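Issue: ligand-bound run for molybdate ion - logging full I/O for the record.

Environment: standard queue, default settings, no custom constraints.

Inputs:
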Amino acid sequence: MAGSELPASNRSTTISSSTLREVKVEDAVGMVLAHDLTQIVPGEFKGRLFRKGHVVVGEDIPKLKDIGKEHLYVIELAEGDLHEDDAALRMAVALGGDNTVIGEPHEGKVSVKSEITGLANISREVVDGINRLGEIALATVLHQRVVRPGDGVAATRAIPLIVSEQKVKEVERLASEYRNKHGIAPISVRPLRSMKAGLLTTGTEVFTGRIADKFGPAVKAKLESLGSVVAEQRFAPDDRHTIVNEIHYFLKQGYDMILVTGGMSVDPDDRTPGAIAEAGTDIVSYGTPMLPGSMLLFGYLRGVPIFGLPGCVMHDPYTSFDVLLPRVLAGDTVVKEDIVEMGYGGLHRC
Ligand SMILES: Nc1nc2c(c(=O)[nH]1)N[C@H]1C(S)=C(S)[C@@H](COP(=O)(O)OP(=O)(O)OC[C@H]3O[C@@H](n4cnc5c(N)ncnc54)[C@H](O)[C@@H]3O)O[C@H]1N2
Ligand code: MOO
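Outputs:
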């Protein structure tokens, strides 16, 4: 029942059986705003100028005109329809789970934020299924991304001002189907365990003191930023036998993880991959399809995760180590297919 032939002040639109009636801003004094109104001043401000529920007063009129509003809506919601804020909120409540917190509706949007440092668990299947429905939108970070307290993990949004409740019920159905099947919400954050690592730094140039060690501080900082520690660091020359012995020493100490740095590439003095294998490691992969970090080795030595860390981990903030370390800390068993999948989207720097 769109009435475009009527004067603007009387114009109304019907969505499902709800009605949106347009009122000229000059006639809107005393009226309650039906939704948040946004102002954008590039480089200065983007946000809510007026909040849903605000009662319009005379001095609002020039401000409303400044943001391009000549008319405001009066909403008469029909049974079975939802206001954008309520739709976005119900979606977020249905989707958000462990270690997430849901924000207040804002301009038809609700954010789901992380409460902890952890690994985002995002079901791509659920996200795509929801975005196929139309009229509603769900944007998320990538699955397995490290998030910090307060980081956004997802945001829900209603596209029109009024959304059929059926759409939201379908979101709720998809979310609860996922929860029943996987025992976790489709959008959640998995905590990281605190692990103690043994760190072996190889390289004759470092062992003999020709150059100062730069790997130790870098690896310690990476672990500490995720709540773990390097419990002990030791040094070895580029000698396979010594490296094997040092790895076995760490194993005996009962550390949760063993890290070996340097000597991971193609030179004759690069003894680390051979030594890790000789120590008895079940190698999941030597080589990862990600740059930087392509020469990384990952395996398990009697169940203990062991990494061979190539040179770039020393100086690059985001390498294959920064992808795999949080997976290990989250308690995942890393398999070959996890490594295979790192190549798609894995080019960060070369
Ligand atoms: N021809 C090829 N060259 C390179 C390849 C390749 O496949 N073919 N791979 C490249 C990649 S990727 C990496 S990463 C680097 C280095 O790999 P390595 O792990 O073998 O590193 P190193 O040879 O042991 O050392 C390289 C460089 O870094 C210095 N270093 C090592 N450890 C320390 C330390 N603890 N503190 C300070 N500095 C350290 C070392 O002295 C060397 O200057 O290889 C590429 N090349
Ligand atoms: O393993 Mo290299 O570290 O890709 O740069």
